[in-house]
């Protein structure tokens, strides 16, 4: 977690990745966001790297994303406003978290870019056929 040092509540920028959250530390400007009044959280998806569980691509992202947004929004250091970042699979985690949450619950601002080859409904159907 990267955050301002004053103990106040701030908006949260959340990234959920299957690619290893430790890889993001040296390459991303998280401290710059913290210096400008944001809290940055980078989370490994279920079953990946530092996260417990079993990784089934796409299957757990909706509920896990929802839970992550709700958890972050409910912390005393959070204002309840949540932004998400990332492209590729991180972009999918944003869509799925947003699909699970009511619009008026906690506002989520997305930064998203998927490959043109990504057909999310087809990938979900594939995952459902493959893993039930």
CATH superfamily: Alpha/Beta hydrolase fold, catalytic domain
Beta content: 15-25%
Mean pLDDT, all residues: 80
The structural class is: alpha/beta
Looking at the structure, the CATH topology is Rossmann fold
Characterize the biggest β-sheet: 4 strands, parallel
**Count of DSSP E strands?**
4
How much helicity do the residues have? 25-40%
Structure description:
There is one protein chain. It is built from 4 helices and 4 strands; from the N terminus they run βαβαβαβα. The protein has helices at 30-35, 61-74, 89-100, 120-131; strands at 10-17, 39-44, 78-84, 108-110. It has a single domain (10-131), classed as 3-Layer(aba) Sandwich (Rossmann fold), CATH 3.40.50. Helix 2 crosses helix 3. With 132 residues, the chain is of the alpha/beta class.
Considering the chains and any ligands shown, give keywords for the structure.
single chain, 132 residues, 4 helices, globular, disordered C terminus
Question: Layout of SSEs?
Answer:
Blueprint: E1 10-17, H1 30-35, E2 39-44, H2 61-74, E3 78-84, H3 89-100, E4 108-110, H4 120-131
């Amino acid at each position: 977690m990267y955050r301002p040092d004053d103990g106040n509540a701030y908006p949260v920028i959340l990234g959920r990745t299957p690619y290893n959250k430790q890889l993001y530390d040296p390459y991303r400007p998280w401290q710059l966001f913290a210096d400008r009044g944001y809290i940055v959280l980078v989370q490994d998806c279920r079953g990946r790297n530092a996260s417990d569980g079993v990784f089934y691509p796409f299957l757990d992202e909706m509920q896990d994303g929802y839970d992550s947004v709700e958890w972050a929004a409910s912390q005393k250091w959070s204002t309840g406003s949540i932004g998400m970042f990332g492209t590729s699979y991180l972009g999918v985690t944003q869509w799925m978290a947003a699909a699970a949450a009511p619009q008026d619950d906690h506002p989520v601002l997305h930064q998203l870019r998927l490959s043109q080859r990504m057909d999310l409904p087809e990938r979900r159907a594939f995952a459902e056929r493959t893993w039930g």
